[in-house]
Amino acid sequence: MARWILHMDMDAFFAAVEQLDHPMLRGQPVVVGGLGPRGVVATASYEARAFGVHSAMPIAKARMLCPHAAFVPPRFARYEQVAGQVWAILASYSPLVEPLSLDEAFVDLTGTERLHGPAEETAHGLHRRIRAETGLACSVGLAGNKLLAKLASEAAKPGGIHVVHEQDVEGFLSPLPVGRLWGIGPHTAKVLAERGVHTGGDLRDVDASLLCSWFGPRGGAHLWRLARGLDDSPVVPAREAKSISQEVTYPEDLFQEEVIAGEVRQLAVALAARLVEERLLATTVRVKIRWADFTTRTRQVQLPEPTDHPVLIADEAVALLDRGGLHAESGVRLLGVGLAGLVPATFRPEHLFAPSALTDALREVLSRHGPERLTLGFPGGDRRPS
Ligand SMILES: [Mg+2]
């Protein structure tokens, strides 16, 4: 059966939310990003893009190109809230919604015709509803697979709908620069350019055996399929992981503050390891404490940016003990740490954030030894919660 896959991408999402919430910014160049000396642009409004400002550009350069722009620090909690509204709309059309990042998702509309009408009408309805219910513009691509749908939504930017019917696939791909095809990185694009292959049409004209001699059997076969717009990868709905947590009841009550802080730190690091493993980032850290008399308290803090950074998460968790008045009044029988507001790691604001070297090192340790081997030095001993 032929499939209908929709790709939805919010336009200049962070900047658009700022313009929505602050009417005086509407129609003005807006740059959302880290405002520190090493800050980088997260999103630029279309008005700022006209001056050459784009994502991942150093803020200092953006200030030079567009000094009169409004420079705004990101408000991830708010963006997440708006994204939640958008997800709810997408989910009302299909159970198969696969988020790629906070503002981008695939929706499998195959077989939804009886409920919602032809896929093309659904695409228009969904596009209208997002505009009407969130006040924000999005671009929508509709095609027979994820590859083509993603390319179609790019073609629809900003604010449009682009449908690629089966008979139009060749005409749609032919003029596209090969570097735009999903899955062709700068290196492959360069190798292709050196061999005179610049567009989708050029790529389709290259023999399969020649592609395989350039890129090996797998790489060659992949490019051959890309050139024909072939892609049978399924839309994989996101696992429902709104929060993760871990708690430990101790065989003997804990009294010493350093020991309690150390345990909380261990729990936080173990959870950060799970985030890394599942490629998620957390925006909220919670700490739960239960005393010997069973009184229980929970405190939470919203992080300035989503993260999976074990040290930052552990520091926030320990700070909650101090700030939240969770000091040991009597013995502590249970400690828990939770992470919530989880978003896909594709949303990592890399450039806005602390060095990711530690996260990389953590990923390395995890892949070699598994999470149970992970521990972090802390003052007060090296015991791990059981
Ligand atoms: Mg977007």
TrEMBL record:
Site (Substrate discrimination): 14
Catalysed reaction equations from the record: DNA(n) + a 2'-deoxyribonucleoside 5'-triphosphate = DNA(n+1) + diphosphate
Primary location group: cytoplasm
Cofactor(s) needed by this chain: Mg(2+)
Enzymatic class: transferase
Keywords, in A-Z order: Cytoplasm, DNA damage, DNA repair, DNA replication, DNA-binding, DNA-directed DNA polymerase, Magnesium, Metal-binding, Mutator protein, Nucleotidyltransferase, Transferase
Pfam families tied to this protein: IMS, IMS_C, IMS_HHH_1
Residues annotated as domain UmuC: 5-185
GO biological process, one term: error-prone translesion synthesis
Active site, renumbered: 104
UniProt-annotated location(s): Cytoplasm
Binding-site list for Mg(2+): 9, 103
GO CC terms in record: cytosol
Molecular function terms from GO: damaged DNA binding; DNA-directed DNA polymerase activity; magnesium ion binding
Family matches, as InterPro entries: DNA/RNA_pol_sf, DNA_pol_Y-fam_lit_finger_sf, DNA_pol_Y-fam_little_finger, DNA_polymerase-Y, DNApol_IV, IMS_HHH_1, Rev_trsase/Diguanyl_cyclase, UmuC
Co-factor remark: Binds 2 magnesium ions per subunit.
EC number, as in UniProt: 2.7.7.7
Similarity field: Belongs to the DNA polymerase type-Y family.
UniProt-listed NCBIfam families: PRK02406.1, PRK03348.1
Self-association state and partner proteins as the record states: Monomer.
Function statement: Poorly processive, error-prone DNA polymerase involved in untargeted mutagenesis. Copies undamaged DNA at stalled replication forks, which arise in vivo from mismatched or misaligned primer ends. These misaligned primers can be extended by PolIV. Exhibits no 3'-5' exonuclease (proofreading) activity. May be involved in translesional synthesis, in conjunction with the beta clamp from PolIII.
Protein name: DNA polymerase IV
Name of the gene encoding the protein in the UniProt record: dinB
